Amino acid sequence: MNEQHSPLLSEDALMAVVDDVWSQWSPRGSPFAGADAATTATKTKRRRDRNRPRHEIARLQAEAEELERELENRLARASKSARSSLRAHVGNAELRALVRTSIEDSRALQQNLSQQVQELVRMLPRSMNVTPRNVPFDTAQDHEVLLAMARSVDEQYQNMEHALRLAGLDGTTSEVADAFVCRSKSVTNGDLLTSRTRVLSPFKSCSLVRALWRSVDSDANAALRSEQGPEKLELPLGRQASRISIQKYEVLVGDHVCTMRKVMKQYIEKDRVAQVWSVLADWALVGGMCDVQTHEQGWGFIQPVNENSSVCLSYSLMNPTLHPRENCEPQLEFLANLYQDMIISRLHLVENQTLDQVMQETRAQQSTEHPSPSGSPARRLQVSGYEESVDAGQRDTSEPASTEEKNAKKKCRRDRNGSWHEIPRLGPDAARLERELQEQATKASKSARHSLQVFAANAELKTLLRKSFKVMGVLEHNVSTQTEELVQAMTRSLVATSRYDMAHSIFTMIA
User: Fold this and answer.
1) Fewest CB within 10 A of the end CB: N or C in the chain?
2) Residue 221 has what DSSP assignment?
3) What is the mean pLDDT of residues 206-221?
4) Which structural domain, as residue segments, surrounds residue 198?
5) How far apart are CA 174 and CA 169, in angstroms?
6) DSSP-based three-state secondary structure for 233
């Protein structure tokens, strides 16, 4: 009896039907119903391959072997185009898998790059959270104050050598980075904080000067003037100054806000570039003290040691003006610590600008030494043993050495000019080839057209793979470049932080 038309069920199907009927017609009070339900609830559902009988597994294996033999026979009887189409299908699948893998690798590489950049940025030392905000000038109030500050800066420059001599920075050759509190007899005013730094920098003095003024321009609104009248707030340079910067901004120092006015002048000397500044800061509330005003006087210079190194010196004095109180020592100590952190943040900003300036100058120098060719690349023409180099925008003005070279050059020009006349004849040929290609595609069989489509898809996938490989190369180059730059910046900042942390610890011990 044929199994396909047999009315009888197999053993497994019959047992399944019996179990189904038995579960439906079992009485509710039967003890077997609860046991069956409990057993069904506790047992997990097994996979179908575990419950498959052995004879069925053997039958499936035989069918698989038969299908493999049939596939081999069909491949042997298949035409060349069919086998080529099959290979194209297999290659298409492999290329698609490779494209997916390359895209996943690109995403993973991009994510790894962002994580590394974030980790390196987090590792960069930050002395404190200092956020400057530009404030417009008030012509009625700021003009007289800034004019008096500019005059005091000129007086400070006259006393620069005396101030450096008193600070112990005159003639010293060692590096210095410290800060300490001065105990003044006056309770309401007097010098409170003294900060000194003398660092040997491995950069040119001109680069350091540019970076300093770049930090000044970015830290405040030196170019931003008042809306009431910019010409009224322009202060005179004086007889000796070569540059002046006028700044007014609000600074968020931790949880405290102060409004600062700063006047800075630059003086060009014989062997160095000096900077003198005066800063007036108004604190509404700091350390429990209200309406506190601090006045900072600063001197500094940048002096070249040799061609690639310079000495950077900075000396600041800060004295507060506050209302008399019985006990203000803790508040003054808090104010000194706060102001010292602000000075350290200012020095960090100058160092970051210095690194940026040096990198820009290095890249500009490299681009000048190795310029990229402009226009089209050089073309070489070979005519009867004569080689001519035609650069974009350039012509060889040297005369040929012999008459043969002249004739070869003329022939080269004739051939080159004649090729332009052949261009109009290429249009009909291209149209004819395109029509023939369309006719062949129409006459081709369905399998051939499908094979052609698969080949086109493979070509597109290969192009996409090349683009993805280029993107991965660019990402790897960006990873290495940004990592190198961040490591250099981190190294410089770590060196500077060690100096300033040492100074801060000395300042804390003295305080």
Assistant:
1) N
2) -
3) 75
4) 130-366
5) 9
6) helix
